[in-house]
User: Fold these one by one.
Assistant:
Number 1:
Amino acid sequence: MVNIPLLLMGCGGVGRQLLHHIISCRDLHSKQGVRLRVVGVCDSKSMVTIRDVLISELGDEFLLQLCKVKSSGSSLNELANFGECQVFSGQEIEKKVMDVAATLCRSSVVDCSASSQTIALLSRVVNLYCCVVLANKKPLTSSLESYDMLVSHPRRIRHESTVGAGLPVISSINRILSSGDPIFRIMGSLSGTLGYVMSQVEGGRPFSQVVNAAKSLGYTEPDPRDDLSGMDVARKALILARLLGHRINMDSIKIESLYPVEMGPDVMPLEEFLANGLPSLDKDIQKRIDSASSNGNVLRYVCLIEESRCEVGIQEVAKDSALGRLKGSDNVLEIYSRCYSEQPLVIQGAGAGNDTTAAGVLADILDLQDLFQH
Amino acid sequence: MVNIPLLLMGCGGVGRQLLHHIISCRDLHSKQGVRLRVVGVCDSKSMVTIRDVLISELGDEFLLQLCKVKSSGSSLNELANFGECQVFSGQEIEKKVMDVAATLCRSSVVDCSASSQTIALLSRVVNLYCCVVLANKKPLTSSLESYDMLVSHPRRIRHESTVGAGLPVISSINRILSSGDPIFRIMGSLSGTLGYVMSQVEGGRPFSQVVNAAKSLGYTEPDPRDDLSGMDVARKALILARLLGHRINMDSIKIESLYPVEMGPDVMPLEEFLANGLPSLDKDIQKRIDSASSNGNVLRYVCLIEESRCEVGIQEVAKDSALGRLKGSDNVLEIYSRCYSEQPLVIQGAGAGNDTTAAGVLADILDLQDLFQH
């Protein structure tokens, strides 16, 4: 039986879903000869763990209780009296994580947070023979220095769920690269929200109306400008570009925001943006749609990586390309390489949601199992 | 440096391309800390290897010479005087392979042949801690008994290139399954030849004309009936179905042949089939196309796996589905699971060709590297 000790950072939606997946896969994994042993869980303020991480684990009942406590908005401290566990907080957390990692010799540290506070810690554990699995994009989109540190042992890191949720994007790119097939172009729609918006406006609905509809469907962040700024897509683009070997930072990426600076969150309150800002953008977007349409094309908010170019923004694409045919909130990625030169390799499907994202994280953890063989 | 000793079976187009890929990736793999060491190559009649497989290898110059000898149609015996090597033939081969495998303790045996003669040998080496990488479909589509033997150590076998050439089909399905996301339906077009034929006839060209055109473009086997029989697609369907846990054999698959039995290769000579047989099929196919078209659909030769169903044949599919939009000789696979339930996960791209197939094999070999760590 291969035993994988696991330390989870972040117990928001994705982290909790991961715990649920782990518990419901117990039988499946046992048949495959693998046992995932959760030895610690942290959020930004606290950490719960157990006394002897070499032999014990946080039981499934405890983990379910943890999920319940967290979804009700309470603190991990509430678990202190529920079953055998130790609770640490504040500055103790980092020390305890290092301690657990050093004791275990080899473990997997899984970052399902959305925080940049984990970066320093991850860079340290990776040198303690730890494997790192990320759903969190921040550690890979910070400085090149910390990126290099994180990927210095490439077999010990997985981060499928940082791009396209569980879609097999990173694993497929890694396969292509390791076979010596050079990728010369990647183009994709990597935001379910912007994919939905761009395919909806194409039918003639005003931009402002579509964004409002997306907001009430729960497709956008509470402030839709978090999506419309393009920053989230830019982070994914940076992750892909660095994977292809580009030595760039966030500031090298050309990012098109779908609203002007004077409508930014620091300048304009959300209500005003929704009521007056957004509608004032309708005309311009409609003009661009009409112009694309007269070329037989449609507009998509894409990420494009090619030679030294890395940019995210609105592009005209052929109506009958994989990108142009995209409907709804699916993600799609077109990869061009020597083997896929005329027609790209296309990967398409749901690229968001806690279930899918957590499933991608779990597949990554399982993919590390050979490193845990004795 | 991780050292992967490699024994190649089959040096036809794919096998030779693999050797070329390995040689041209030397620098890349060295940067990744991996060294592929080719210690033996077999074809159906002979085997070349070296005296001390623990420390030596067949050099790159030797391997290039081997490729040259094989592409000219000569025997591996010709290499006996070229550099340091040992040549074995006939019954000696199996004994020598076992010998090499036992000496190396852990090695990877790569089957790029198209033969069922390798099955017995593969089942034996897999018990010697060998890893197995297959482009050859036969070992996985023979009896359930030998299938079970081959996959008895699931982490030691890879076979991406048995379905869709280098397309990340098997690796993606394995990821989905290991994350506990149950796949309930797979539908795809897994033959570049039949994909081309079915998308071409849709435009009104007679079936016989399209098949002849595909033949002269080199898209079909020398006898196009090898493609039209559906047997090759059925093999891929069986591999996918078994991967999903279906305990079935070839004879459980419903296979639609695009020609009737009385036109089979044992009954009708190729020339007569091309001249008279094929054209007599035009009318019926046209009728089916018209009927589909009146429903707004198109015809595709698909593989369908769903619950206990596993079948390959012509199906009506929606014009605007990934399958319906397929043009040219690309493969496409739609995977439906809990995470991809309404919209499938779609993987699309070139699914044939020695370059792509060999790249898939090489990615598989690299994917095994953690098992070769000390």
Number 2:
Amino acid sequence: MKSAFVLLTLCLTLNVASQTDADVLKTIYKQSLTNGKSYDWLNHLSNQIGSRLSGSLGAEKAVSYTKAELENLGLDRVWLQPVMVPRWIRGTKEYGYIESALGKTNTVNICALGGSIATPALGIKANVVEVKNFEELALLGKDSIQGKIVFYNRPMQADLILTYEAYGGCVNQRYKGAVEAAKYGAAGVIVRSMNLRLDDLPHTGSMTYDDLPVNKRIPSAAISTNDAELLSTMLKLNTNTKFYFKQNCKQLKDVQSYNVIGEIKGSEFPNEYILVGGHLDSWDLGDGSHDDGAGVVQSMDVLRLLKTSGIKPKRSIRVVLFMNEENGLRGGKKYAQESKQKGENHIFALESDSGGFTPRGFSFDCTDASFNQVLNWQPLFKPYLIHYFEKGGSGADVGPLKTESNVLAGLRPDSQRYFDHHHASNDTFDAINKRELELGAATMTSLVYLFDKYGVNPISNLDNIKK
Amino acid sequence: MKSAFVLLTLCLTLNVASQTDADVLKTIYKQSLTNGKSYDWLNHLSNQIGSRLSGSLGAEKAVSYTKAELENLGLDRVWLQPVMVPRWIRGTKEYGYIESALGKTNTVNICALGGSIATPALGIKANVVEVKNFEELALLGKDSIQGKIVFYNRPMQADLILTYEAYGGCVNQRYKGAVEAAKYGAAGVIVRSMNLRLDDLPHTGSMTYDDLPVNKRIPSAAISTNDAELLSTMLKLNTNTKFYFKQNCKQLKDVQSYNVIGEIKGSEFPNEYILVGGHLDSWDLGDGSHDDGAGVVQSMDVLRLLKTSGIKPKRSIRVVLFMNEENGLRGGKKYAQESKQKGENHIFALESDSGGFTPRGFSFDCTDASFNQVLNWQPLFKPYLIHYFEKGGSGADVGPLKTESNVLAGLRPDSQRYFDHHHASNDTFDAINKRELELGAATMTSLVYLFDKYGVNPISNLDNIKK
């Protein structure tokens, strides 16, 4: 039986060698859409394991599960890379309300931001100063802010087509809001959730205190967009509107965790590495299906789909499931650091961390020459409606692998629904469409196949480019 | 106040006249994403009115509502075009089960196909013949089929990227299944739902008896994909598996209904018409949010967005909300017939009837010369990720308007999730994303703007085409 299997694999491999690239891509997409594993894996990760905040039991289970599943694929090597990660816990559910000048209260939907300190045990109640940005905050100054709760309420810009750009234009309120407000003596910070939609869900996400002394730190939390609208309206009607919130989240000691890594050894250039990855950790409110369960299972399926499509890579292909992207990036940094120490040459690294929606293309962080090489391949993707090939960022976890000559890339799925779910309790498996997820896995596999076959070409060849 | 408004409109209009096309498209998209009405209209249509099967109270309410809303837009003319429509009613909820050879029963999720006759009052129970297509049916012949229930179980092809193509490859089972099976004396027909996903929802849709005499007609119904899998498995285990179903749907007499039409009169070429439309009727299981509430409200918003963007059309722009697309196409046919009688020159007609998902582009039914003209405009759409410009079909309702020189087109949104909802009880407002809907309305408005500005150019100008 085993020799029959070897023969079959050999036939498939020889067959692929003689196929056109268009035929190979067709095989890859067909494999993913009719015989993919990504959806089943995600079902387990989301519904059997659930949320995977760094240092949590869920994260630990996810390490064991994905390692075991990679081992089942018969890769050349599967291992864990130890990495110490921060452990922040939310504690009991947060509670908050708006108190009108007449003393009437409206409960709001609120969640602590990741990394925030707790409020005092009895909570904080204070007057509220609403601002749109740090410039307004500075103009108000200490006299207006001291002892109050700063309410950041700059909405995501609806007329930007790429929702990531709208997120980029807002997220400093969440990440830096507390440290900025603390400068003026604020008692706490409330942020409008990073969500383009008006709804009732608070969205968490990381925040920083930078090097603020512990006794200067103030608690920060997000409220839903609907509650942000309500609070803003009430403040317009009466500036004496107060806000109360209580949270008992906590930063514990760092704990041991792992990146999960699998590898197919290259047949011709084993020392040239191609990496695909997503991050295994998630926030704790939903089950992290889009962020980034989708990227994890798609990356795992890239190696599997190469095999089931009969492709025998010339270069070494690695899947890396990074730990702690959300609140520390320790996994991404550790991987890059060890890789550098070992002198590993990563010619191409591809991250999927933008949700499991219909793939539209890729964003490339590379030289013009490499980008031109990629544009040559663009027509191969047209039958799959993959059209977005732009220079830009790649992904947080692969970013530290950047060199002068390599290519980093990020999968770019349709982004319209992403921030409806991002870091909120509705980032759950039911929001995933099986075909969309599988199309993403096939799109990633196709690009990996092409980079494996042709390598990274440092020579610009503008004449061949189809514009 | 009124003169101030007129002045403002004039300024906007003059301003637009001096803008580049790229600037105008930017204004249109911004208007739709920050000040669109499509989502609010759809909320009313879906949640206040609900399903709109031809001849139903819902359809009647939808006619009144959309007419009133178009009147609120201050168009030059809004009117109803009378059209007689078939009235089919589902009656009491269908019931069906699989009975194993040992007499154990499994209830299935089943719905009558639109246009089907009822079963006898006590239902039909019979042995089952599973086939994949009409060829298999013919090979089995009368001896194997007489008195049995024919079960059509050809799944939608998962490896086709455009799900409409997968639908096209399967839908003859639903539409013609009964008339084909009746030739061989079948007692009834069960069809696997047109759904790429495995789930529990039956999907209805139209079927025909052609010219089959009334006494030869047999009832036909759809079962969910999960139930189709179960029935198929049980038949493989034991061919003596039986199926029972009961439905009391009925075709009533035709009733009076209407197409709803609104018009902005063209300033330079009032006798050249540009039409945008969707269909007002829906199936009865969900609320028809994707099929085709989305197309209705997007089409309405095209006229409104032209106004709010300060565009004064040179040609007459009509929105037509067609009645009875689903089970008769009477509205589309009536509109084309009267338009022909009046000698109206429709240079361009655009339909949105493929769901309210993220728009990807258009399919064009036109001459090569006109298609080349459109390809010249393609770069204008790139910032909005609109990339799909292909020759192909347009839409059922605008199809009858085809001439040798005009351009028909269909909006092509992302199709991956469409058949999860199509004609099923989950075609509901919660499956609509506001931004995706608004992007569709803006994309349609942009193309209407360009055809209004430049007209349909019958001269091929291949040199200018950016390939």
